[in-house]
Design brief:
32% of the residues are buried. The chain contains 22 helices and 17 strands. By secondary structure, the protein is of the alpha+beta class. The strands form four sheets. Strands 1, 2, 3, 4, 5, 6 and 7 form a seven-stranded mixed beta sheet that branches. Helix 10 runs parallel beside helix 12. Strand 3 and strand 4 form a beta hairpin.
């Protein structure tokens, strides 16, 4: 109760989160109205019975009021993001929100729509979308704020129906983008450039200026990618190999500018302006300068949720120092979350936002208690122990979310943190010195040389850790297991504070529930037979799972792994056995007492026209001739289907001919 009493913003933030989550359900409108009604009623009751013993009634009224506010802002945020002209073809005038990003087959452009024209009228339209422009020399010359005229139709990515499929459409919607489109070189042209002043554009220009300083100091390749991401939040220069190395070793948080980086900047600013502390006015001036610099740094790094949260938290700490009040850390954390969610309720569903707050809360709560277990006198040992404590409790806070979203756990995260955290501190301090003294001859060369070698050593060590045996554990957990893990951690934390055995007992039961769910899932997977035809426009992928055995009939093994890996983790199947689909086009195979034939070309010539084929299920893929004669060759046909990599006109022909032929089961 003391925690709830001393941390009012926890209660307010919790109510706001409940309201935002209610908007995701189908009953948000009735609950929104009901919560307003309950708030008004309880407030009136409080006014009628205004004694000290009834203070909790006012608290209930406020709680329900903020649930209403959460539902309200989430609903209007959803309406605001809705793309106005989805699935409507015509001419769109769009403005680039940032420079195009080169992809293997196209350029990705984040744009906002300005107007729409068709054969009937021209109208103003507002909405954000993503364009994929065909690669050519003109696209590479485009820059932020360029205005394009494109002929296209924006659509929202839809689910293909594959098991454990990532909902890319919902992800884009959370990021504020309502549609996507691919445009060939002949269907767009540049028509202008927006010269209007923008703070965000100014911040991005400033970041590009700082990035050019790195390049002018001959920092390039992997070293530039790491330095740009670590100090300025610029991730476009990160290669897939770099991302994989840092992700596998559990060091990816260093490349995502977050509380660690803002904290180091906060300490650097405190050191630089340490001379301003002789009197009250100087202390106020010092903290105001620190707040201004933190806000500027947040703009330079793109105002990501993690940077916004950290900037807000450290700005509040500086503000409390300026007015001479000691901040309550939990209130500061939940106040920052409350403000960010008010500004953008979709932050609640951002993975980085969730990981950031879970890590901070775990560190604030568990780290002092764990570090108190052992207090070595040696400075080096004390520093190492503190680093171990921070790394362990941060993993306790973030591991459930990491496993749930990414299905992996870095085994050597402690070893990685001993490399990246000290190196990140040295790199940030050195980068600040390089940016300050970049115009000083010889000194800038020395600083750049030292910085490059620190970056090289860090990447070498991270790469070495990545190649250690069992460096990455792949695990699948569902929503119930995620909830069980966090309940276990919360109840154990409550036990540490209150020392009540019932809390420890409940925590153990949550742990038991986690493993029971895992055992039930494994039992279901080994006692079933499933045939999954994965939806893919690139390849045929047919997965046969029988009592944990895993056979994949496919035309591209890499595409099969990308589509089915999470499903295999969930079902805990054995390692897949790949069979080329062309090998089975000559003969049928039996699965679950049914005969299947995968046609990748016409009926094999060794079968005569009069010979009937004993096949129950026909799967048509690639380009083959489809007519009534094809279906008449099969004696006991039950189902006919076409894979996604079959051209649209063939799939339509399959449907038409199948309807005319009318197999036994359709």
């Amino acid at each position: 109760m003391n925690f709830l009493y001393n941390t009012p913003f926890f209660r307010i933030c919790l109510a706001l989160i409940i309201g935002i989550l209610l908007n995701e359900t189908d009953i948000q409108k009735p609950l929104f109205i009901a919560s307003i009604f309950i708030s008004i009623c309880t407030f009136l009751i409080y006014k009628l019975i205004s004694s000290y013993q009834k203070q909790w009634i006012f608290g209930v009224a406020v709680f329900f009021a903020f649930i209403s506010i959460g539902t309200f802002i989430a609903f209007f945020s959803e309406q605001k993001k809705r793309f106005p002209l989805e699935n409507v073809e015509g001419f769109f005038e769009v403005e680039l929100l940032e420079n195009p990003i080169e992809k293997p087959r196209s350029y990705l452009c984040r744009v906002k729509t300005i107007s729409f024209s068709d054969s009937i009228c021209t109208s103003e339209t507002k909405g954000n979308a993503i364009l994929y422009l065909q690669k050519d020399s003109l696209v590479s010359q485009l820059r932020r704020n360029d205005v394009l005229l494109v002929h296209t139709k924006f659509t929202k990515p839809s689910l293909k129906g594959n098991p454990e499929e990532f909902d890319f459409g919902k992800y884009l919607s959370r990021k504020g983008f309502g549609g996507t489109a691919y445009i060939s070189s002949k269907k767009w042209k540049k028509v202008g450039h927006n010269e209007q002043f923008s703070i965000k554009n100014l911040a991005e220009d400033a970041r590009n200026y700082l990035l050019n300083i790195y390049k002018n100091c001959n920092i390039s390749d992997n070293e530039f990618g790491i330095l740009a991401a670590l100090t300025l939040g610029y991730k476009d220069a990160l290669t897939p190999e770099l991302r994989e190395s840092f992700s596998t070793t559990g060091a990816m948080h260093v490349l995502a500018v977050s509380g660690l980086h803002v904290g180091i900047i906060y300490m650097i600013l405190g050191f630089f302006f340490g001379f301003l502390g002789k009197n009250r006015r100087q202390v106020i001036l010092k903290n105001i300068i620190i707040i201004i610099f933190l806000i500027v740094y947040a703009f330079l790094t793109g105002l990501s949720p993690s940077v916004s949260r950290a900037t807000l938290m450290f700005s509040l700490m500086a503000l409390w120092n300026a007015i001479g009040r000691k901040s309550q850390i939990y209130n500061t954390i939940f106040f920052s979350a409350f403000v960010l969610l008010l500004l953008n309720p979709d932050y609640l569903f951002d993975v980085g936002f969730q990981l950031s707050y879970s890590a901070v809360i775990a560190i604030v709560f568990f780290q002092p208690k764990l570090s108190a277990v052992w207090q070595p006198q040696n400075r080096v040992l004390r520093w190492c122990w503190e680093l171990v404590c921070v790394s362990l409790v941060a993993q306790v806070g973030t591991a459930p979310f990491s496993i749930y979203y990414f299905h992996q756990f870095p085994t050597y995260f402690l070893l990685s943190n001993f490399v990246v955290i000290p190196a990140a501190s040295v790199i940030i301090y050195s980068a600040v010195l390089l940016l300050v003294f970049s115009s000083v001859p010889f000194l800038n060369v020395v600083l750049a040389f030292l910085l490059k070698w620190v970056l090289k050593i860090m990447y070498f060590l991270i790469s070495s850790i990545e190649h250690l045996p069992f460096a990455l554990s792949k695990i699948y957990i569902d929503e119930f297991q995620l909830l069980a893990l966090y309940l276990m951690v919360i109840l154990f934390g409550a036990y540490v504070v209150n020392r009540r055995f019932i809390l420890f007992y409940l925590s153990l039961n949550c742990c038991l529930l986690f493993f029971v769910i895992r055992l039930v899932t494994h039992y279901n997977s080994i006692s079933q037979q499933q045939m999954i035809i994965f939806s893919s426009s690139k390849a045929n992928v047919i997965n046969l799972v029988s009592f944990s055995e895993n056979v994949v009939i496919c035309s591209d093994a890499d595409e099969a792994r990308q589509l089915a890996e999470v499903y295999w983790l969930k079902e805990r199947t054995t390692a897949p056995t790949f069979i080329a689909d062309t090998l089975l086009s000559q003969t049928a195979f039996v699965f679950d007492d049914k005969r299947y034939l995968v046609l990748t070309k016409s009926i094999p010539k060794r079968f005569s026209r009069q010979q009937k084929l004993n096949v129950d299920n026909l799967i048509i893929s690639r380009k083959i001739f489809v007519d009534s004669l094809l279906f008449s060759r099969f004696d006991s046909l039950e189902t006919v289907s076409a894979t996604d990599n079959v051209p649209t006109y063939i799939r339509r022909r399959v449907e038409n001919v199948r309807n005319k032929f009318s197999p036994k089961k359709n």
